[in-house]
Structure formats: C-alpha cells, structure tokens
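We keep the chain:
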Amino acid sequence: MDYKSSGVDIEAGNETVRRIKKLAKDTFTPGVLSEIGSFGGLFKLDTTAWKEPVLVSSADGVGTKLKVAFMANEHRTIGADLVNHCVNDILVQGAVPLFFLDYFATARLSPGVAEHVVEGMARACTENGCALLGGETAELPGFYADGEYDVAGFIVGAVERANLIDGRTITAGDVLIGLPSSGLHTNGYSLARKIAFDELKLNVDSHVPDLGETIGQALLRPHRSYLSVIRPLLGRGLIKGMAHITGGGITENLPRVLPEGTAARVVRTSWRVPAIFRWLGESGRVPEYDLRRALNMGIGLILVVAPKDVDAVKKDLLNAGEANSVVIGEIVPGESTVEYV
C-alpha cells in the first residue's frame, strides 16, 4: 500500500499549489516579503503610514452555503464570500485589510475545484486591496464526503488607535443607517436549504417566478464587501459604531456594538425586504421572529451616527457609490436589545 491508495494524492496537491501560486501572487501588495509555499507568510507593516497602528484580526467560514455550491457545481463565488465576510468583520472596527490566509480541506483533492475557490478569493482580495498571503490545503480522506470541502478564512487589518470604532460613544438619540445586503450573504442557509430543497423539493436549477431566477442563483449571490463605500468615512469621526449583520440577524448582531444602558429601536417598514427573504418566509411559513434571527432581511451593515451627522454620512455614502442607504431606527435607553416597531 502507498500513500495515494490510502486516499492522499501528493501529486494532486502539488498541481493545486502550482495552479494557485499565480492567483495568489497577483494579489501581493508591497508589504508581502514571502512567496506561496513558505512555512509562514511574511508581511512588513509600513510604519511610516501609521502613527499608532492597531492590528485587527478575524476568522470565519462560509457555513452550509457550501452545500448549495456543491449541488450547483459552482465554486467560483465561494472564495469571494469568505474574503468579503472577513473584510466586513474587521471593517466595523474601522480597520482596513492587510492580508488574508485560507484553509481548504477536502476528502479527495480536485485541483480544478480548488483553483476555482482560490480564484474567487484572489479576486476579492484584489478588490479589497489585501494580499492573499498564504494558506493550507488539506486532503482528509474519510473525514469529508466525496466531492465536498470546507473553507475558512483568516484576515489581519490595521486601524489607527485614535480612529478605532468601538461604540463606546453611542448614546440614546443616535440614528441607525442601514446598507443593503446582496442577498443572504453567508448566513441562514440551513433554514433556506430546508425550505427550498427539503420542503419544496426544488433543485438548484428550479426557476422561482417570485424571484425571477433559479433558486441556485438567488442563494449563491456573493456576500457583499462594504469596504469601498465605508472607507471614505473612516477616520472622520462621524461613525460611532458599526454592526455587520451575519448569523443572528439584526436581532443578535446590533447589540454587540451597543454600550451599557442603550438599546436599538428598528422600524420594520423603513426598508423594503427583498424578494428572497419574503419568499423564504412565506414558503416555509416561518414566524417573523425566527426570520429576523436567522437572516439579514436585506440589511447587511448598520452604522450608528449622531443625528447631526446623518445627512453628511448619507452624502458621503452616495459619493462613494452607495445610493440605497436608509435610516432604519434609533438608539434608545435600555439594555442591549433590539425592539422592532
């Protein structure tokens, strides 16, 4: 018996590395000092560009959105989902990304599939101005089902200490500005899959009239990055807090940025809930409370700003290309909860 007969194909691993090297190298920024394949990635922080830099890091995955990608045999957007999710997670504290690393694990390595996933990562890294510094590709026979894989992302960014956004200055009377999501992003897929594929017996190519597209297209729409529209506002002191609306929806994520003694009041009718969320709720007969805890309901990022700064922030967002920001509520006295009215 040899290693390949036990399920691990070293040659497939080498071929995968060969394919992704150029993809990663095309994302390199001036701070990168290493090549793909080193034991560790090297990055030199440009200390001349920062007075007192604070490094901000995060790690995340894509969840069961991967199951939809497997069903559709579409792997080019999953990498972008991963990068953009991580970018948003550090952005809410005012940080811009420096570099990104990934972990790709599968039962039996397919160089073509791995290349498509990394292709999405590289594209998103380039769009967000960060380097794909390195990662790990693991072949784990007997651990994952054939044809399936898992991915995780690790990001490091930086922010001037004086410009950290941590929510501590949020007070009652501050205003909530919501930015639209591009769809489910990377959360709520266990519920969505159960409704679409288990209850309604659809397949990924089933056309849904209420959505104007196939269910696969609707569910695989990439997670949006908010860096390009938020970056012009960073360092201006206009944003008191930000919440990335991921698993748990507005209900669970907005309280994470609220200081003691404050709560949020969200006006449910202040934005039009996109068709995919309405369709899932109606088709699955899901109570509104559960929908709002599982899905972002069309709002992917929330800014907390002082009333006097609302017009300036919305103008800056518009100038940066975000034409659909909307006031969705306010901060009220309370204890870190969200009230819907």
DSSP finds eleven helices and twelve strands in the chain. The chain has a mean pLDDT of 94. The radius of gyration is 21 Å.
